[in-house]
Amino acid sequence: MTYLNAEMSFDSRAGAFQSSVGQGAATPLPPSYASWLAMTRPGLGVAGVAVEDRTVQLLQLSSCSSGLWPISPQGRRRLLESLNDTVARNATFDVHMVLGVTRESGTANSGNLQSLTTTWSGDSTTAAQLFDVINATDSTERPPVPLLGFYSPFIMNQASNVAFFGDTAGPGQRGRDAVDCSLVLRSEPNAECDGGVVRYWCMKCAPLFSRGNVPNSSYPEWECLTNGIGCAQYDYEAHPVTPDVSQFVPMSFVTVSDRVPTRLNLIPNVGILALYTTFVLAVGTMLRGAFGGAVKNPPIDDIGDPQSILNHITLMEIARTAEPPEFGVELRTYLCLIDFLRSPEKLLAVGGHRAENIPEKKEQ
């Protein structure tokens, strides 16, 4: 993932909260972070969050919206009426969140830009709390409004699509990774307009672990994470993280990305050895026919020990699949192989004569 933007709104009205984060601002993670997630969330472990060829990122939004709450007086009145009606009928109301994500590459049927939507339904108690917060006329900050089980923090970035983990794991997993959040509406004097007030929403959510998103030795689950001891009580799918609101952190997302094929990586790494072997031998055969006679160009099958040539081909495979790829080493090794195949003398020098492998006849 290279970019993530989150927008939240009440009943499809004007956006209340908006925040974004780029790849450069991703939280640095220890090498064992993916395995920690698998140990505390068995469903993620089964889904392969800790598989070696997947990339795990932690993207943390800002705690307060990047913009003011752009709701008109009429829109505010209608929202208050809707919340008041929800309370009177003991019904529910919806809070919508839309995620826009950008990834480095996609496929023909799934582009780089993807959108995810999720809807959370609040009860009449939450509606009453929101009504009091929005209807307040002074700048006194009201208590946070709880949004229990508000969103799923785990996003699976696959070649075919981008989806919340609960949507890819089946009905049995949906909702088990939901995180509690809290909303606060802040009011401040408008510095550019005397007597005016600006309003904006802030949101914080329960962390991924007991005291934050990235554990250390002070966390109670540290023994489980490092030694696998006593992990039953830290199954956060069965027992969600529910710290005090004072320990909430800004809304965060963990993205688990597969390696998506690109135009520069159409051939699977597993077939690179066969590719190079075929290509190098074909080019070598062509060069031998163009620049020399058949008598002066021994076939590669007649070399006494071809292991040195095979070592060069293996080196190219290793250079190509390294992280990051060593393209300079790959190119130099390839050119060296071409030189071997163009020169019978060099080929025999590194591989030896086949006759040398034939034992001399023992005297009777």
Shape: elongated
Rg of Cα set: 31 Å
Global mean pLDDT: 82
In percent, how much strand structure appears in the residues?
Answer: 15-25%
Measured between the Cα atoms of the first and last residue, the distance is 75 Å
Given helix and strand content, the structural type is: alpha+beta
Relative helix content = 25-40%
Q: What summary fits the major beta sheet? A: 4 strands, antiparallel
SSE order, one letter for each helix or strand: EEHHEHEEHEEEHEEHEEHHHH
Runs with pLDDT <50, length 5+? 263-271, 293-297
Tally of helical runs: 10
How many domains make up the coordinates?
2
Strand order of the largest sheet: 2-1-4-5
Instruction: Give the beta-strand count.
Output: 12
Description:
With 364 residues, the chain is α+β, with helices and mostly antiparallel strands. It folds into 2 domains: 3-257, no CATH class; 269-357, no CATH class. Helices cover 30% and strands 23% of the residues. The protein has 10 helices and 12 strands. The protein has helices spanning 33-40, 42-46, 73-89, 124-135, 165-168, 222-227, 272-291, 307-321, 327-342, 344-351; strands at residues 3-10, 15-22, 55-60, 93-102, 113-122, 145-151, 154-157, 162-164, 179-189, 197-205, 249-250, 252-257. The strands form 3 sheets. Strands 2-1-4-5 form a 4-stranded antiparallel β-sheet. A 4-stranded mixed β-sheet has the order 3-12-7-8. The chain has a 4-stranded antiparallel β-sheet with strand order 6-9-10-11, covered by helices on one side. A hairpin with a 4-residue loop joins strand 1 and strand 2 (15-22). The chain is elongated. The termini are far apart. The relative contact order is 0.13.
